[in-house]
Specification:
Elements lengths: L15 H4 L11 H7 L3 E7 L22 E2 L2 E2 L4 H15 L3 E6 L6 H13 L1
Parallel strand pairs: 1-4
Antiparallel strand pairs: 1-2, 2-3
Length: about 120
C-alpha cells in the first residue's frame, strides 16, 4: 500500500525574490525567473504554428494554427515595423528586464524568431 499523496504547499510569491525562497528543490531562482516573478519579463508568443498537436499543449484554440505574434496578451500588428514598435512599447510599459519566447513552435517560423532575438540584443 502506498502513502496518500500530500497536497502541495502553495508558494507565496510576494517575497519570493527578496527572500530567495523560490523552489523547495533548487533554492534561489535564475535571473530570468526573478524577472518573471517581478512581472518584469515580456512573454513573446512568436507564432501559433506548430506541426504537432500534443495533448498537453497549453496554446488556446484561437491562437493555435495562426501566425500571429503576441507580446504578453497584446496581439501585435501584421506589419513587421509596426509590430516592433508595439513590442518595444509593451516592454517599456511593464519595464521589462527580459523576454521569454514561446508559441506554438517558435522554430516553425525561424526567421521571425531569430529577428526578435537579434532585435532585442541589438537595441
Amino acid at each position: 500500500m502506498t502513502k496518500a499523496l500530500q497536497p502541495k504547499t502553495r508558494v507565496n510569491t510576494e517575497n519570493m525574490v527578496d527572500t530567495g525562497k523560490y523552489s523547495f528543490c533548487m533554492g534561489c531562482p535564475a535571473e530570468g525567473c526573478k524577472s518573471c516573478v517581478e512581472g518584469a519579463k515580456v512573454v513573446l508568443f512568436v507564432t501559433g504554428l506548430c506541426p504537432r498537436r500534443c495533448f498537453y499543449c497549453p496554446v488556446s484554440e484561437h491562437k493555435f494554427g495562426t501566425d500571429d505574434v503576441y507580446a504578453d496578451e497584446w496581439k501585435l500588428s501584421k506589419d513587421p515595423a509596426q509590430a516592433d514598435q508595439e513590442l518595444l512599447e509593451e516592454c517599456r510599459l511593464i519595464e521589462a528586464k527580459g523576454a521569454g519566447i514561446t508559441g506554438g513552435d517558435p522554430l516553425a517560423t525561424l526567421a521571425k524568431t531569430t529577428h526578435y532575438i537579434q532585435y532585442e540584443i541589438l537595441r
